[in-house]
Amino acid sequence: xxxxxxxxxxxxxxxxxxAAVDVFTRILTRGPISRIDIARLTGLSQAAVTKAxxxxxxxxxxxxxxxxxxxxxxxxxxxxxxxxxxxxxxxxVKVNEDDIIGVATDLTATILASTHRSIGDGSxxxxxxxxxxxxxxxxxLLGDRIDRLAGVxxxxxxDVDSLRGIVRESALLGWAREPLGxxxxxxxxxxxxxxxxxxxxxxxxxxxxxxxxTASFAIVTIGSGIGCGLHxxxxxxxxxYGVAGEIGHLPLTSSDRICTCGRRGCVETVASxxxxxxxxxxxxxxxxxxxxxxxxAHAGDxxxxxxxxxxxxxxxxxxxxxxxxxGPELVLISGEAVADYDLYDTHLRAAFAEHAFGAAxxxxxxxxxxTFDDWARGAAASVIRAIVTQRYPxxxxx
Length: 398
What we know:
It contains 13 helices and 16 strands. It is α/β, with parallel strands linked by helices. It folds into three domains: 8-83, Arc Repressor Mutant, subunit A (Orthogonal Bundle); 87-202 and 374-388, 2-Layer Sandwich (Nucleotidyltransferase, domain 5), CATH 3.30.420.40; 215-328 and 336-369, Nucleotidyltransferase, domain 5. A five-stranded mixed beta sheet has the order 6-5-4-7-11. Strands 14-13-12-15-16 form a five-stranded mixed beta sheet, with helices on both faces. Strands 1-3-2 form a three-stranded antiparallel beta sheet.
């Protein structure tokens, strides 16, 4: 099958000079912004900024915006640069254990459309088919904007080789060495980027959320797994082998506990949703759901309360370990279980305070719920970053 024909705007970004990449990134993440401020942030001269911006304006992905002085004061209007948000669109897909969520976004990762689909038997082939259906549904929802589609991002839990589009290991999905990126590219005839789901969420926060203007932060996600994304010194940490921030698999619990990854003593053996349900269950009550255990804990049931207390302690210890090593100024706690964060909070913060070393204890812990649309948006944001920074999705020739 021939390689997809790239949109002229994508070709422009992929062939841009390092200076143009830097300038465009500042406009995308900080705009509206003046040429003077871009020069200050990048270290480029104003003449170099103007040179870099000119083809972006000509291509219709950046525009000048004239803003009158505030308060009706006299003076020349300030000329600010801003992104033309719908000059490109992306599709992001989040693959869960039981369902798939897809979103279409503009160039600023603002969601334009979304869709949801339950998956079948969970096999690689079945999920592959379901992802294709979700993407096709979103393409229909995009209508005549489809000719601006820049690519598809897919976020998956586990060890992901994003360069080659391979899911090396996903305990949640039961996959190993699955060539998801190549398979999707062949089916969709589009550029595809496969990314670890927590890292994708971190990329979205880096460019379009808490990371803007923040030197370092971490995201810790609580739910069916315990994930962590790191943003240090202005970059999302990806690791030499594509693995970084896996605090869910720190060996902080008893070696008697076997994790779904096959290893022993992982944080997830106590703190994942499945582990909490298991701890609160027993011969006298089988088939409990996560919501059942949450309700029991809120009602004061001792087993359910103890399960959340243990989870909070282990997560707090894991966060302290990560903060001691990476030194972020902020930890954002998110994920599907954050709606019930009150059940974790006391023991999590106590364990963090006990184990955080020195000034690292001053790291702020902020809690913010998110939806699965946010996870899918992270996949879309990963495509945007890959194009802008010239880190191409799945290579056209493997």
